[in-house]
TrEMBL record:
One of its GO terms (cellular component) is cytoplasm. PANTHER family: ARGININE-TRNA-PROTEIN TRANSFERASE 1, ARGINYL-TRNA--PROTEIN TRANSFERASE 1. Residues 170-297 form the N-end rule aminoacyl transferase C-terminal domain. The keyword Disulfide bond does not apply. This is arginyltransferase. Keywords: Acyltransferase, Transferase. Belongs to the R-transferase family. Its EC number is 2.3.2.8. It is an enzyme of class 2 (transferase). Residues 50-123 form the N-end aminoacyl transferase N-terminal domain. Pfam families: ATE_C, ATE_N.
Amino acid sequence: MNQFYFFVLIDDNNNIRINLKKSNVKIRMTTINLSEKLILTRPMYISDKDCGYCHGSKTIKESISLGFHVENFTPLQYDKLIQLGFRRSGTFLYKTNVLRNCCKMYTIRTNSKLFKINKEFKKCINNFNKSIGNEGNTNKQFDLNKEIQKIFTNEFFEIRNETPEFTDLKYQLYDKYQKKIHKDKTTSAKSFKRFLCDSPFPEYGEIKDHKVIKYGAIHQCYYLKNQLIAIAVLDVLPSGLSSVYFIYDPDYNNLELGKLSAILELIYCNEFLKLDHYYMGFIIESCQKMVYKQKFGCEVLNPLDNYKWYSWESYKEIANDELLFTKDQLLKFEDKNREYLLDLKDIRGVDFIKEFDEIYNDDGDLFSPKDKDLDNNGNIYDIPVNFPGLKDLKQVYEKNFESIEILNYSNSMGRLRFFNFEDETPTIKKVLMNIYRIIGDELMNESILII
Ligand SMILES: [Zn+2]
């Protein structure tokens, strides 16, 4: 029997999160090491009428993302979540619903084989080399690795891989960058820490002599004559290097540090660290601020095809926000689910469907998500049945939830209890089913849910 324990924490005052992190919990005869677990909050389906990318200029006027907070995960677990289209912002993980979103976000990555050096990039590297006292490349032959080596071995310029800890110096640079480049007047030390220093990894990442010692988050700091001029926030993961954010001193605008850093990180990832992929976050086809990424020869994750990687060139047209998902295509998704329902009625009987409907009460409504799930924020809704990239109803029906034994820790009662899935309330059942739809069996087996 494929029985497993699913650990649920009933968290009524938040203290439990801090107390349990990085410690062990003893249950029956075994000890659970919490730093190996994916500890997450219940997923939220958040609709925001005010889209930061298109500002309501498109036919579809809604920006919808699916997200959850993560208290802890291992670099490998995060790597798996990236392959499911998620990306982290601090400790919050999110992705968009490509069926309903005004701006459809796709995860993109590249590597040194896909990357083709062009005139623009050559110029950027040459300029930088000259500005730090290296010789520029005057030959017709442009050996990219050699040019990058020159940068890494220069005596006035240094890139140091540091722990992602907060310092005043880093914050001052962030503040200056946000104000000058993004006209953002709302920066605070707290938001910098939350956004670019905090992460759910149990340990900091570590790189020594261009070798990965530990996976996790790092700050790759650029020093020119010992002065901090830029910071790349990076996640070092088993399948590659993931770019989180990049900040630089606007006084050095002429060095094109944003462009340079992407080339450096790509080469550093493949040629120095020997990691396979360089993850560049999300791309939105219609977003001018993001399409520069396609110059790096990217491939994208396709949620419509079980999260397979497609070359950006071949997928670009489908990714067009205004083109994708006619009503017909949406109906196809819906019909698929209806067929499953009919099939399953034959297999498992009408009662099963009825009971399931009570839990999952969702008629697959196409454009208006409804049934507020949490009442603290009017913008949080049920996760719809039709969501490309999530397990569909058939898979949920076929999953044997009854075999899950739920280990329940109630903070108010201060003790552990075992439940069966069947004994749980419809709300909890639904949350568990949703988690299964979102992260699948394998990750769910390693998860702890904070209700
Ligand atoms: Zn938008």
